[in-house]
Design goal:
alpha+beta; 18 helices; binds adenosine-5'-diphosphate; single chain; 34% helix; five-stranded parallel sheet; globular; 23% strand
């Protein structure tokens, strides 16, 4: 086993990885940018080293600096978390070249899956169903692209070969919008990934996103650890995830699991990975991509299986044989995860930045919070605005929803605006409760388009502010004669919403 592991990441995932390392008796090394000097992951690590600079490009993406720090502090492995360098094959290769274990799959598997065009071809060859489409769009003439798009049939989806995080993706409803959508997708992909190759796919308008967690060791064994439902998305990005997928027919589940294992085996996979599928109403499913890293939503799998996926990753990276066969692991209960973001749903989800003046997270049976921030933390514009993940487990889905809603109501963040109220609305929607999910759920049900009523925390702050405005400072002339007004009678319009 490793003696020391460097975490090339920040925020909640760095904290989460450090927690497992501590349990395993492995020393943890954090790295931090200038704004993250006092961040939670720095506080909880055994050692921490600076990455001078502010932006991700200056700091957490500095591959050579990270490897140098790992070498000089004697770390024998680097865990990349998700995002940043986690799916960068060159970084994985550089780690190996420096004699440091990269906690992740072989660099060639990362490279192959990082190119969606190559990934689709490999999956087709392995007999895994892929979304019908056309991959020749990279340097084809506009007329050829138009012909191929009509052969696929509208609506079509323009996607970027290097895509990730929903970037470089455009839904095209009819032929007249195709050329502009291709140009826009190219521009966006070029700017985001330095690679503007695009391809076309049939757009599946009423499908679900169902993905399988796979686990493979370095000795050739591959298994799966059940599925996650990730259909609740905004701009093709997940917001709420759950496990298992509600209402998935056992026969379909078995076929998808078998395809996921086949997909991982076909690319010589090792470590934890995720095979993503679109699942249509008729039970047909299609490969989307393989994420060659730990997923943001891995906790829901951990809770229904009673596993620690970070421990699995570290043991596999250290050469251990696969600890478990997926089809032998019983699923227990139901888990749901909500991503709590510093953003304003009333202002088109504009990121909200600033200091967290006060934060209180829920706890209790079946409630887990993976957070990278606490009272006093700064939320900056430079990184992902996700503050925390709230995960609820219960014996069945209905109880998990109830538990999640109760936990959301106790989750207090003051100082930045969050999407907590929006998550409440979403979890309480009858279609969500019924498990009638698909990737356009938020659009179809218009959730998040109108601002909700002020939250209890907002009421309290407003009332407090109203009270304090009238109360002279202690010791001021006349203070003795002044009685502090009752906040609820002085809070004006804020009071109404509380009844
Ligand atoms: P990224 O790598 O950018 O996350 P993915 O290929 O994983 O892109 O797709 C992200 C999301 O985009 C999916 O979960 C789904 O909501 C939507 N999507 C992707 N491909 C299709 C498709 N062919 N039809 C409908 N929706 C799709």
């Amino acid at each position: 086993m490793f003696a020391k592991v460097l975490i090339a990441n920040r925020g909640e995932i760095a904290v989460r990885i450090i927690r497992t390392l501590r349990e395993m008796g492995v020393a943890s090394v954090a790295v931090y940018s200038d704004p993250d000097r006092t961040a939670l992951h720095v506080q909880v690590a055994d050692e921490a080293y600076p990455l001078p600079g502010t932006t991700a490009a200056e700091t957490y993406l500095q591959a050579a600096t990270l490897i140098e720090i790992a070498r000089s502090c004697g770390a024998d492995a680097i865990h990349p978390g998700y995002g940043f360098l986690s799916e960068n094959a060159d970084f994985a290769r550089a780690c190996v070249a420096a004699g440091i274990t990269f906690v992740g799959p072989p660099p060639d598997a990362i490279a192959a899956m990082g190119d969606k065009i190559i990934a689709k071809r490999l999956m087709e060859e392995a007999g895994v169903p892929v979304v019908p489409g056309w991959v020749g769009a990279a340097d084809a003439k506009a007329a050829t692209v138009a012909t191929e798009a009509s052969k696929i049939g509208y609506p079509v989806l323009v996607k970027a070969a290097a895509g990730g995080g929903g970037k470089g993706m455009r839904v095209v409803e009819d032929a007249s919008a195709l050329a502009e959508a291709c140009a826009a997708a190219r521009r966006e992909a070029g700017a985001a990934f330095g690679d503007d190759r695009i391809f076309l796919e049939k757009y599946l308008p009423h499908a679900r996103h169902v993905e399988f967690q796979v686990l493979a060791d370095t000795h050739g064994a591959v298994t799966h650890l059940a599925e996650r439902e990730c259909s609740i998305q905004r701009r093709h990005q997940k917001i709420v995830e759950e496990a298992p997928a509600p209402g998935l027919a056992p026969a379909v589940r078995a076929r998808m699991a078998e395809a996921a294992v086949r997909a991982a085996a076909a690319i010589g996979y090792a470590n934890a990975g995720t095979v993503e599928f679109m699942l249509a109403d008729d039970g047909a499913f299609y490969f989307l991509e393989v994420n060659t890293r730990l997923q943001v939503e891995h906790p829901v799998t951990e809770l229904i299986l009673g596993r620690d996926l970070v421990r699995d990753q570290i043991e596999i990276a250290a050469g251990a044989a696969l600890p478990v066969r997926g089809d032998e692991t019983p699923i227990r209960g139901h888990a749901i995860e909500c991503r709590v973001y510093a953003e304003d749903p009333a202002r088109n989800f504009l990121p909200s930045t600033g200091r967290i003046h006060y934060m209180e997270t829920p706890d209790g049976p079946g409630v887990r919070v993976d957070s990278g921030v606490a009272t006093g933390s700064e939320v900056s514009v430079h990184y992902d605005p996700m503050l925390a993940k709230l995960i609820a487990w219960a014996p069945d889905r209905g109880q998990a929803i109830t538990r999640m809603r109760a936990a959301l109501a106790r989750f207090v963040v003051l100082g930045v605006i969050t999407n907590i109220e929006f998550l409440q609305d979403l979890l309480g929607h009858p279609a969500f409760v019924a498990g009638d999910l698909h990737t356009r759920f938020l659009e179809e049900h218009s959730i998040g388009v109108t601002p909700g009523p002020p939250t209890l925390a907002e009421h309290a702050v407003a009332a407090f502010a109203a009270t304090n405005r009238r109360r002279p400072p202690a010791g001021a002339i006349g203070a003795a004669e002044t009685t502090a007004p009752d906040p609820w009678s002085s809070a004006g319009r804020w009071r109404g919403g509380l009844s």
